[in-house]
Structure formats: C-alpha cells, structure tokens
Amino acid sequence: MFKTVLFPIDQSRDAREAAEVVADVVKKYDSRLVLLSVVESADSENEPGADMMASPDAVAQLLRNAQSLFTEQGIQAETIEREGKPAFVICDVADEIEANLIIMGCRGLGLTEEGASDSVTNRVINLSPCPVLIVP
Fold first, then answer.
1. 19 and 72 in contact (C-beta within 8 Å)?
2. What is the total count of domains within the chain?
3. How many CA atoms are closer than 13 Å to the CA of 77, on its beta-carbon side?
C-alpha cells in the first residue's frame, strides 16, 4: 500500500516524535523509507514554523543520526538533502521519488487561520502529490 514513505526531518521535537510512527508504518508495509532535510536558501524568507538549518554540516549530521536511529530498528533509510523553501521542496521530492505517503510532525502553531495557513505542514497538505500523515 505504501511502497515509498517520505519523512521530512528537522531538529524539532515533533520530527523526533513522528519517527516512531514512521518506523511502525515502514515495518508494517515493508516500505522504502526516504529521509529528507531541507536547508533554507539564504535568499528565501524563513517560513513560520520552519527550523532554519544553520549549515550543510548540521543537516548532514541530522540525516546521519536519523538514519542510524532507523538502522537500529532494522530499517534501511535513504537520505536526501535539498535547498529551498521546505513545503515546496518536500512536495517536489515526494513527486520525484513517487512517494505513496509523507509522514511529518506538526508544530501546532495554533488554531488561528493565520497560523494554520502559513505553516509548512498546511502547505504540504495542500500541495502534496500523495497522502500526508500528520503526527501531532
């Protein structure tokens, strides 16, 4: 059912908490797991709720740590690092790898329309080429 799962990660607590759900889904459906981290381009505006990744080295370390976490659970994970606006990059990568599911944490910016419409999560939900599972 979910042949390929995309898990966008950053340094947030929400991403760490979503990892357990990702592991469960990947094991249950014997899915291919792709970890994605997005470095915001220097000229792009910082999206609300997005953790600005300071350097490519920090992103590489984050991806290595996440990959190790899944390896310990017997899950092989591929990694991708990209630059750009997180929501758009996540959806582009999902399309490129033909993801069947995106799993991501939700920062819970609040229930106001302004907070919801500007969040990376909401943008991914609206632009994604596949289903999106949000882990609260």
1. no
2. 1
3. 28
d(CA 4, CA 74): 16
- At 63, list the tokens: 């991806």
Residue carrying structure tokens 């910082």: 46
CATH of the domain at 123: 3.40.50.620
* pTM score of the predicted model: 0.85
Series of mean pLDDT values for 10-residue runs along the chain (136 residues):
95 91 97 94 52 70 94 96 94 98 78 60 95 95
Domain range for 33 is 4-135
